[in-house]
């Protein structure tokens, strides 16, 4: 089944720009397994498909061929775990990896919730490959950025391609997949994601608004605004998106709450939490789900 999907979908390890978290420091030294590198190198095939037509847009076959990329050596390949958190992450990943039985992990959550960074960490410690669904969509549309896809072809076009990508990914194994914030709105997407384990990264809206405002919202088509206070406008639009999507996020198998992590660690602000701590909590919650 995976072989059939590989014939039509090119998958590679992308480190996307979705994350609002700082990149893990080199002291983390997450191991990259030689075996996993070999598996990534096997995923060399083309994404060849016909883009769905939209009004005013002529459909065309799109060939995309890319070379697998590994995460930066300075971050992931030193092979040493230097802090208690790193050791805890390694230990927990070794405990649950056999229990996953190769099932994929899908990270869902609002834009800016850190799915890319957390997914990258989880993939490395589990010996999985990491993929960003938005990056796959961009590649399938000739490298067009998400914001431009929305502008040129509309949200429905983007969602159709998102569903197609998730469909193909769902036939594979040993992947950690960062999904777009709106991937949860279509029930068919949950059908595909529930073939693996879905993990909801739950970040308070005010924290998301602060992060997104700090880096700018120009690349976020659903947040773009022309005037007014940037934070206020961003929080307003995030609140509307949350109102529309919160029920859908509850379909995830696992919920990782940053507020809960902050309470456990004695932090008064979720912004004090680092990606390693979130990854550890994700593994703990996945372990709890697997034991049910």
UniProtKB/TrEMBL annotation:
Signal sequence, renumbered to the chain: none
Broad class of the protein's primary localization: plastid
Any one GO MF annotation of this record: ATP binding
Kinase found in the keyword field: yes
SUPFAM superfamilies: P-loop containing nucleoside triphosphate hydrolases (SSF52540)
Swiss-Prot/TrEMBL keywords: Amino-acid biosynthesis, Aromatic amino acid biosynthesis, ATP-binding, Kinase, Nucleotide-binding, Transferase
Pathway recorded for this protein: Metabolic intermediate biosynthesis; chorismate biosynthesis; chorismate from D-erythrose 4-phosphate and phosphoenolpyruvate: step 5/7
Localization per record: Plastid, Chloroplast
Reactions catalysed: shikimate + ATP = 3-phosphoshikimate + ADP + H(+)
GO annotation (BP), single: chorismate biosynthetic process
InterPro entries: P-loop_NTPase, Shikimate/glucono_kinase, Shikimate_kinase/TSH1, Shikimate_kinase_CS
Its EC number(s): 2.7.1.71
Record GO cellular component, one term: chloroplast
Statement: the UniProt record of this protein carries the keyword ATP-binding: yes
EC class of the enzyme, as a word: transferase
Family per similarity comment: Belongs to the shikimate kinase family.
Job of this protein: Catalyzes the specific phosphorylation of the 3-hydroxyl group of shikimic acid using ATP as a cosubstrate.
Protein name according to UniProt: shikimate kinase
Organism of derivation: Echinacea purpurea
């Amino acid at each position: 089944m995976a072989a059939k999907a590989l014939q039509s979908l090119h998958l590679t390890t992308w480190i996307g720009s979705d994350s609002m978290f700082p990149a893990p420091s080199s002291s983390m030294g997450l191991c990259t397994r030689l075996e996993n590198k070999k598996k990534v190198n096997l995923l060399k095939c083309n994404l060849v498909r016909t883009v769905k037509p939209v009004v005013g847009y002529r459909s065309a076959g799109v060939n995309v061929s890319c070379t697998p990329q590994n995460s930066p050596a300075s971050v992931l390949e030193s092979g040493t775990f230097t802090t208690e958190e790193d050791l805890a992450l390694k230990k927990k990943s070794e405990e649950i990896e056999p229990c996953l039985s190769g099932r994929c992990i899908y990270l869902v959550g609002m834009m800016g919730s850190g799915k890319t960074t957390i997914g990258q960490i989880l993939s490395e410690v589990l010996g999985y490959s990491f993929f960003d669904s938005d990056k796959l969509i961009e590649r399938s549309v000739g490298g067009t950025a998400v914001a431009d896809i929305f502008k040129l072809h509309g949200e429905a076009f983007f969602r159709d391609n998102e569903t197609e990508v998730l469909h193909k990914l769902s036939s594979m194994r040993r992947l950690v997949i960062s999904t777009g914030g709106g991937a949860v709105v279509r029930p068919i997407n949950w059908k595909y994601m529930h073939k693996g384990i879905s993990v909801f990264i739950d970040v308070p809206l005010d924290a998301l608004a602060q992060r997104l405002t700090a880096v700018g919202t120009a690349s976020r088509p659903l947040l773009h605004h022309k005037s007014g206070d940037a934070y206020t406008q961003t929080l307003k639009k995030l609140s509307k998106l949350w109102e529309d999507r919160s029920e859908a996020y509850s379909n995830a198998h696992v919920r990782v709450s940053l507020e809960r992590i902050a309470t456990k660690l004695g932090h008064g602000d979720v912004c004090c939490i680092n990606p390693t701590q979130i990854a550890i909590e994700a593994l703990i919650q996945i372990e709890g789900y697997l034991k049910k």
